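Internal ticket #5521
Category: modeling
Description: The requester needs a full-assembly model to guide mutagenesis choices. All entity lines are attached below as received. Residue total reported by intake: 942.
Assigned to: D.W.
Attached entities:
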Amino acid sequence: MTSGGAHRNEQRSRFGQLRSILAAPLGGAPAAIWLPALAIVSLMIVPLLYLVIRSTGGDASWIEQIFRERTFNLLQNTVFLTVAVTFSSVAVALPLAWLTTRTDLPWRRFWSIVTPLPLVIPSYVGAFTVIAFLGPRGMLQGWLEPIFGIERLPEIYGFAGAWLTLTLFAFPYVLLSLRAAMNGLDPALEESSRSMGFGAITTFFYVTLPNLRPAIAAGSLLIALYVISDFGAVSLMQYDTFTRGIYNQYRGAFDRSTAATLALVLVALTVIILLAESWMRGRARYYRSSAGVTRPSKRHELGRWKYPAVGYCVAVSTVALIMPLFVIGFWLQRGLRAGEPLVLVWDAAFNSGMVSLLAALAALVMATPIVIFSVRYPTWLSYLCERLSYMGFALPGIVVALAFVFFGANYLTPLYQTLGMLILAYVVLFLPQAVGIMRSALLQINPHIEEAAKSLGSSSSRVWFKITGPLIRSGMVSGGLLVFLTVMKELPATILLHPIGFDTLPMRIWNATLEGFWARAAAPSLLLILVAAIPMILLAINEDRRDRQGR
Amino acid sequence: MKDHIVLSQVSKSFANADEPAVRDVTISIDQGEIVALLGPSGCGKTTSLRIIAGFEKPDTGSVSIAGRIVADHEGFVQPENRGVGMVFQDYALFPHLNVRDNISFGLRKWDRKRRKERVEELIELSGLSELEDRYPHQLSGGQQQRVAMARALAPEPHVLLLDEPFSNLDTELRFQMRAEVRNLLKQVNTTAILVTHDQQEAMMMADRMAVMLDGRVEQIDAPDIIYHYPATRAVAKFVGQGTFVPATVAGSVAESDLGSFELERDSAAEKVDLLLRPRDVTLEVDPDGIAYVVSRTFQGAEFTYLVQLPCGVQLISNQPSHVDVSPGARVRVRCNRVRLAAYDQYAQVAMTSPPPMIAPPSLSDLSTSSIAPAPATEADETQSSGHGHHD
């Protein structure tokens, strides 16, 4: 090669480098992918940024707001409740997880299906059943009075009620996370501990439990986020946490920026919890080092202990599942006998189903470009895009709803208090579920399969519709069902953003319970639980089929 | 047709790597030829293949397929418009389509009758009859490999690209499939480029092989030329086993423990290294031999001996397993090759090219491109005299 040629070549390669740096954040993704992905993520962040501007922008009074005594009380209550529920949930779930995965518990498969079921009961439905049952003059008192002459039970409202309710209906989150971890634990760890002369109990505390730390951390994170973002249970139990404080401020005061300031403090609290979880997960790595086929662990024999073990499962299921269903059934038949009209319930059910369906479809459509961008074109930008789409997972519903109220009332006035706005807020809140499931489905598809299709002459869109789409279909179905299920139960965003006159099941339950009309709340509650149970069952079937296909 | 596939000064860097993956690669391949890209992992061979397929864009240089430029600084043809067939290491069969639908996937634009005939033809050709309705997960590794080949060949591509196509098969099946695939490719007269890190595979399959190291093509030649006359020390080290035996140059003669060799032309170098492959020498037990056996390893068909030469080098030598010499025994080492590759002691590249060499005097007349007759010294005589010297 002549020196001139070499020089030109060098120049061109330098230019090529410059071009590749500029194009680098897009990772070579086509505009049909990165443009919608970035647009959707921006659509999600802008209202939240506006919330920050709104609450801090006006003057310096927001700093005073934060340091008021009331803010401190809310903070104290929220933290206290979060810590208490997290601990009690782990305490309830740990024995259940161990019994249903690692022992010869009688009817083990039955218990492993039944124990997580309280998940389908929304916290506000749970709260109303707890009040109706355990309230000072509730159903339990009604049974006890003729026998023991008890005229009043202790007060249920306040911390005790909120703590009990949230524990009963949130512990399945940590249960599921622990079960997965216990199933995946390398049996060789426990076996080597046993062979070194440690007994079953010592082994559990010194080997098994430390290895469950990431699962406990992850499960606790879910519980903590559930508690600090819970609005229904704390409101019905009249326990002042941030969510209730924000709502009351928003409803009662003229100055809505106080609500925004409180929302920001709540976001800060969320960030602290996320940091705490990653710290608790620790620096140690946990994985099975043995390659090859996973060997199932040997199950411990319970022997005589199986009676208390079954008793424990029965007790938890009775309180968390049978009691609520019984209370609802009781008030349902009472209401029907008193002539409570069901027509309104059907209307609300139809509305609930419709918004949930629309939100699920919107979430799938919006998740698609984000997932493809982040999985197939990994750059810092696509990573950021994916991470930001998970934001709704950590943010309390009431914060997102408030952000949309502010932003919508000022900038999206035509959309304000329309169905479109409500669905947009749902998507921000629940997009992470669709992105998460679709992402893991897409990650399992070898990119070579798409390249093979391209080298056989298929355009990008044909590859998507003929190859990738069909292959991740079951992931998309799961993601859609999960969004449907969660939107169905969502309360605070619905309350703040619903179009006037638009009634859904959660709202009917909320309005009825606020005024203590248990009979009126019963029918929509039962319907909601049934509707929520259907996707749960479909999810289970879908997962089961995927497992058996073994792909 | 000549120059069916041409890569011209192709370079490619990745954003997250310091070193370019492919540097200034120039290769020209004829229609119907099978070329293997051989090299250790990370040498840029797969990147080169993906540049031809269109899955990667070269930073500089150009690629042409069947006379059409598909990538240069001005333009880029998408993979789906290149007429390139690709067989992936993991086969990348579509798991939701059966064998027939996998094979016909690339024939979308053909009319129905031709498509059906073509699929039947390939099923027949690849020995997949009766498996048409199976899904990929119901096939054995070898069968999946055949489907991947059939699917890639179906649209009659200009070139078939194979990326480590046999690495997922067990040893026995691998041997069988190599022969089978080579026969199939020659039968349909398809140009093919094969990427592999397995030298044996490259030698068995390819008409020519290109040895790639650190992103560059070090040598592209017929497999036997590359084995015996590596263009560089690096190629010599990467392909096959061997020993560099030092020799001292006097005028046009190089003297070593294995005898004197005449250089093809005068060399400025005072010292050269001669490349000896394990089968390039014979061993004879001789109490007066200058060399002795250090160790012996039984390999089944042969013994591998490590032989200590007076110059300090330990020579690797393979002998049929009936030649049984005990460690410690003195031996006479006789070179049985006509020509050897020689390298200036301070240089990486062979002294003359192509082919770079030295010939033992008595046999030098066999090659015209080679060297002048050598002085009448027998290798073993030199050894004997050397022996006296060193003892």
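Resolution: model delivered.
Comment from assignee: The first strand of chain B starts at residue 5 and ends at 12.
Ticket closed.
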